[in-house]
Specification:
Elements: E1 5-8, H1 14-24, H2 31-39, E2 43-50, E3 53-63, E4 66-74, H3 83-97, E5 102-108, H4 112-120, E6 124-133, E7 138-146
Parallel strand pairs: 4-5
Antiparallel strand pairs: 1-2, 2-3, 3-4, 5-7, 6-7
Length: 147
């Protein structure tokens, strides 16, 4: 997509983020959760957009020198266009600029497209979190990579 940008979001974007969240996750964040995250000094949310339309987002936070990818979502109608890859690349660069030396995330074990995206970005599985996901109950893969 030409002229697309990835920028930090403000509270004016909460409604769209929550719409995408509901389309992507069985246990979606609420609008209050997004508003709280946007206003937190510990979290960063970046959106992939073209003009005023948001197609996806990534939620990041740092613990010491580790960048945690808390959430990455792309609206279903815009998947397989490189948006998830672009957001992930942006997040990893963000971690590098902020002196992180690794990145970690949890991903639903049955989410084959997401697992594939992360593997292609050099993440590897280091373990599982039992019962990490609800609706339906499922374990996650814990994936990590150096930055």
């Amino acid at each position: 997509m030409t002229d697309a940008q990835i920028t930090r979001v403000g509270t004016e974007s909460v409604k769209r983020l929550q719409e995408i969240e509901k389309q992507c996750f069985s246990n979606p964040w609420s609008m209050k959760h997004f508003t709280s995250a946007i206003n937190s000094p510990r979290l960063d949310i970046y959106a992939y957009h073209l003009g005023y339309s948001i197609f996806g987002y990534i939620v990041l936070y740092r613990i010491e020198k580790v960048m945690v990818i808390s959430n990455l979502a792309v609206s279903p109608e815009h998947r397989r266009k490189g948006i998830g890859r672009a957001l992930l690349k942006y997040g990893l660069e963000f971690g590098k600029v902020n002196y992180c030396n690794s990145s970690i995330l949890d991903v639903r074990q049955s989410n084959k497209p997401a697992v594939s995206l992360y593997r292609k970005a050099d993440f590897f599985i280091i373990g599982t979190n039992k019962g990490y996901y609800k609706n339906p109950y499922e374990d996650s893969f814990i994936m990590v990579r150096e930055i």
